[in-house]
Every structure is written in structure tokens, then in C-alpha cells.
Amino acid sequence: MPAAADILETPDTQALFERYHLGWETRDPKLIASLHSADTVFHVHDGSEPVVGRDELLSHCAGLFEQYDFSLERGRLLCGSDFWVFEWQMVMNFTGTDGVPFTATCEMLDVVTLNEAGEVVRKDVFVNGAQQQAAFMRAGISL
Fold first, then answer.
1. Which site in 12, 64, 126, 132 is 20 to 30 Å from 94, CA atoms measured?
2. Residues whose CB is less than 8 angstroms from the CB of residue 99 and which lie 6 or more positions away in sequence, other chains included
3. Of all helices (H) and strands (E), which one includes residue 25?
């Protein structure tokens, strides 16, 4: 059974989360990568391979921001001394195959592990595959 300290929100982890989330909200790959360890693993569980290393993550995030027009809606956040779990919705703006713009949402879940230095050593992102597939199909994007 986990200790109460592992369940309750911790101020240091909360502050780190806020800095990290700001990087995503402002679409700043340098800020995001700076909060990861050199040997970080960033894995979106959508069938893609994990991104390994801070430099690779920087490139990956820059590519995401160039390729997709999306924002985030916050959900529940659970923090412990060396982790956070964050429920959120990705809000994506697309143009459908019929030429009509549309907005789609996709439920997401981040599981983030921190090292003793307070760096993100692993981020696993779980995607609602049905919502993602429906949005991408409507936009004519193959997964």
C-alpha cells in the first residue's frame, strides 16, 4: 500500500509540473526538453517508438508543434514526490477531407517519473485511440 506522502500532492512536484505544462501550452520545445534528463524516455502509446534522449525529444517536440495545431485542456492532476499523473484533453484543429475545418478532442493520460534531481526521466502518454483515429480519419491523416 502506498504511503500517504506518495498520494498527496507535493509542492515541489506541483511547481515542476506547472513549468513543464507551460512549455506545452506555449509550444516551447526548448523549455520542455530542459526539464528532461539527458537519457529521458518519451513514449506516446499510439504504436510509435519511444523517443530516447533530451536532444531527440527537443527535435520530436519541435516537429509536433510544426505538424499539428493543438492545445490542451487540463483535467485531474495527481502528484507524488517523484511522479505525476495528468489527465487532459488534446484539442486539435483540422481541415476535413471535405475541406471544412473542424475541432476534435482526444482524451490523454500522462504518467511522468522524476529522478532525484527533479528531471523527467520518463513520460508515458496514453491516447484514447478511438478518438484519435476518428479525428485523423476525418482529416485524411493516416496513423
1. 126
2. none
3. helix 11-25
Instruction: Please give the Cα distance from 64 to 19 (Å, whole number).
Output: 19
Among candidates 18, 46, 23, 45, which has minimal Cα distance to 33? Answer: 23
DSSP, res 82: T
Domains of the chain: residue spans and CATH: 4-139 (3.10.450.50)
Cell of 104: 476534435
pLDDT lower than 70: segments of the chain:
1-11, 143
